[in-house]
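Reopening this ticket.

The earlier resolution said the output was attached, but the attachment link was broken on my side. Pasting everything inline this time so it's all in one place.
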Amino acid sequence: MTEKELTIYKKKYAKLIAVIGINDCKGRVCQVQADLDDPEFVTYVVEELYNRGARRVEVTWLYRPVFRTIYKHTSKEELMNVYSPEIARFKFEADEKVPSIVLESESPYWMEGIDPVKVADVKKAHLKERAPYRDKMRKVETPWCLAAVPGKEWAKVLFPKLSEKEALMKMWEKVIICCRLKGDPIKNWQNYNKEIRKRARWLDSLHIKTLHYTSKNGTDLVVGIHKDTVFCGGAHDTLGNPPYNPNMPAVECFTTPDRLVTEGIVYSTKPLSRDGQLMKDFSIRFHKGRIVEVKAKKGEELLKRLINTEDASHYLGEAALVPYDSEVSNTKMIYYNTLFDENAACHLAFGASIETTYKPALRKLSKEQLIKRGVNCGNIHIDFMIGNKDLNIVATTRDGKKVQIFKNGNWAKKL
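Inline output:
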């Protein structure tokens, strides 16, 4: 691929994020958060938002070495303070229903050496302060999109034997495949949205009570599925608003577990990168829905700290089905990035459930009422990957039937 061809793909990608990712930005203030890896690409995204009628676009930048230096030299107590300008920004975003784009360029090890307890406690404090404003934005389905952009550090982690330039180009080739940028990306995503919705409606028609996951690695887990939720995937449009795609890439079909109905043990199949630190080769055991045991070969303390963030993070908030045979999985890569890796493997998430899966009756309830109804509500949502090529999933329906959902890592039934 030449530099000229790459520029064409970048412009396609930028348009895709604005048109399919956010969609509804006419007359609105939009927020873009980006790493300092590819300012040219960010410029393309901003231009496309204005082409879609945005009133104003605000860009905030993250430069990881600066962020790390701040964490290194500032006390935990000081970092936990959330000052009034930050609160004012949260309030403005919620009041104005600001569409948000996060352009993420991963660097899996960038916070290694920084106390994971410090990182987790600071994040917890900020999430707590932001929670009321995030809840307000969720209730009106404010559009948001998380998309990945290759950066030098990330590319060199994935392709260490290549030069910096070659690694970046190689990673862009993977993004082009995973994000369906060949041909007409917008049409590709419209077709994907139709296909995944068809799959979700089939799953809903089964009236699933539990999903039983088994794998040769030792996974033997039963997850209860909440009766008042549905399966979702692709575009979000449950409140009658213009549809938007919150993740690029995307393959998953997901729903909400019953908070108190998970039993057994599950083993991770891909590393989990969080806050610039890595957790890998871990297992999580559940009893009556709650996480009761955690073991990890790497990052065990950080993983335990994340789970202990709040009571809700001891329970599942998402069960997502992803075939082993998919665009992302077929690249045969571990990306050390949840956005990519969760779309290459079935995954679960502990913490907050996802409102788009709620049936209308649940949407009217308070957090306290939802929890009493068996829906997990919280401030964090951490996905971890459990899928592999021998994963089997058998559903038990509410009328007692057994239905094979996954066989050897893929959908057991073609639609």
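Reporter confirms the inline version is readable. The mean pLDDT is 93. The longest strand covers residues 257-267.
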